[in-house]
């Protein structure tokens, strides 16, 4: 019998807590690494329940021992950790966004390609049932060619970690939150050639009550389709909500997450103020679905995942253009050579 899959989980915050049950459901043993004591806390919680989870304090030793690495750390650390894992010959799962700039995201993807390993951007929204069904409908031709696409995503402003309040570290509402729907828009309507965006509210929040921040990005696709992506970081009582409306000559599909019961992944089984990761209708965790697909691709002849390294790079490229457009008030053209 082959040994269990050994995964190095980097980080022990909210998104690591979303990924860890997925790896355990796949029969993996998991080593957790952090730069503080949070790895010990997370590992002990699961070890007490009989799971094969342990904390480690040596990143080099971890990279030498695992089959793959799952990066669930703050965005500014992604590049360094991914390049270290790739240099060790490990496949990499990396939370969104891959990096804060397209240049760094492309560097990560190129390094993985040169090393012959996989870089999997964890764009989990592709695995939520409503969005997966939307993709299938579009590619069956149910709507005709997509013409106008509209996406909204709203949540309480994240305040459980200070780096979210610094756009230089999180990328702000566009890069951190709206990158999900930017990726979905490109998944459905193809590459983006032009971006115009606007942000309202103060994104930098340190030590004062965080303001509401909203942003809108209009994406023009090479196909001629137009997508409008709206994001909101709201007050602490803001209900998490996503919607989409996608129209073509053949019809319209729309969805509102508030009409569908779901579950929420929380830290320590309770939900501290402003903390919690929204999930999916009670079928299967989309985090489990994406990790299963990634792990299956590591086998010889395994299926290609529905999200590729290039998808992760392009999502960052479009979000970066939207951030620039919002800053300057100008339309940003995305060079054809970059696509």
Percentage of residues in strands = 25-35%
Distance from N terminus to C terminus (CA atoms, Å) equals 44 Å
Supply the helix-strand structural class.
alpha/beta
Fraction of residues in helices?
25-40%
User: Which series of helices and strands comes N to C?
Assistant: EHEHEHEHEHEHEHHEEEEEEEHHE
Please tell me how large the radius of gyration is. 19 Å
Give the neighbour order of strands across the main sheet: 12-11-7-10-9-8-15
What is the count of DSSP helices, taking H or I runs of 4+ residues?
Answer: 10
Fold-level CATH name of the largest domain: Dihydrodipicolinate Reductase, domain 2
Integer count of domains: 2
What summary fits the major beta sheet? 7 strands, mixed
Could you state the CATH homologous superfamily of the largest domain? Answer: Dihydrodipicolinate Reductase, domain 2
Total strands: the figure is 15
- Shape, principal axes of CA atoms: globular
Structure overview:
It is a single chain. By secondary structure, the protein is of the alpha/beta class. The chain folds into two domains: 118 residues, 3-Layer(aba) Sandwich (Rossmann fold), CATH 3.40.50; 188 residues, Dihydrodipicolinate Reductase, domain 2. 35% of the residues lie in helices and 25% in strands. It has ten helices and 15 strands. The strands form three sheets. Strands 12-11-7-10-9-8-15 form a seven-stranded mixed β-sheet. Strands 3-2-1-4-5-6 form a six-stranded parallel β-sheet, sandwiched between helices. The chain is globular and about 55 Å long. The N and C termini lie far apart (44 Å).
């Amino acid at each position: 019998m082959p040994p269990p899959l050994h995964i190095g989980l980097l980080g022990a915050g909210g998104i690591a807590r979303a990924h860890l049950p997925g790896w355990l459901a796949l029969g993996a043993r998991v080593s957790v690494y952090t730069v503080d004591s949070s790895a010990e806390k997370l590992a002990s919680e699961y070890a007490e329940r009989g799971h094969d989870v342990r904390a480690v304090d040596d990143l080099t030793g971890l990279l030498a021992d695992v089959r793959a690495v799952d990066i669930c750390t703050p965005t500014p650390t992604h590049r360094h950790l991914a390049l270290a894992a790739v240099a060790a010959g490990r496949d990499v799962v990396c939370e969104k966004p891959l990096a804060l700039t397209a240049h760094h995201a492309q560097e990560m993807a190129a390094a993985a390609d040169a090393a012959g390993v996989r870089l999997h951007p964890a764009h989990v929204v592709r695995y939520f049932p409503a969005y997966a069904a939307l993709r299938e409908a579009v590619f069956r031709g149910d709507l005709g060619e997509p013409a106008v696409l509209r996406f909204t995503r709203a949540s309480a402003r994240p305040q459980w970690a200070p780096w979210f309040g610094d756009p230089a570290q999180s990328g702000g509402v566009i890069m951190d939150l709206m990158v999900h729907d930017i990726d979905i828009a490109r998944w459905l309507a193809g590459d983006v050639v032009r971006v115009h965006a606007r942000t309202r509210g103060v994104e930098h929040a340190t030590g004062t009550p965080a303001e509401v921040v909203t942003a809108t990005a209009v994406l023009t696709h090479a196909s001629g389709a137009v997508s409008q992506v709206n994001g909101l970081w709201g007050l602490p009582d803001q209900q998490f909500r996503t919607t989409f409306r996608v129209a073509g000559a053949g019809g319209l599909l729309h969805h509102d997450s508030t009409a569908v019961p779901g579950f929420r992944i929380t830290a320590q089984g309770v939900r501290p103020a402003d903390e919690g990761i929204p999930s999916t209708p009670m079928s299967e965790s989309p985090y489990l679905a994406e990790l299963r697909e990634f792990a299956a691709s590591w086998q010889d002849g395994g299926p290609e995942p529905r999200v590729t390294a290039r998808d992760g790079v392009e999502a960052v490229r479009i979000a970066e253009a939207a951030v620039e457009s919002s800053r300057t008030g100008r339309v940003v053209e995305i060079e054809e050579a970059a696509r």
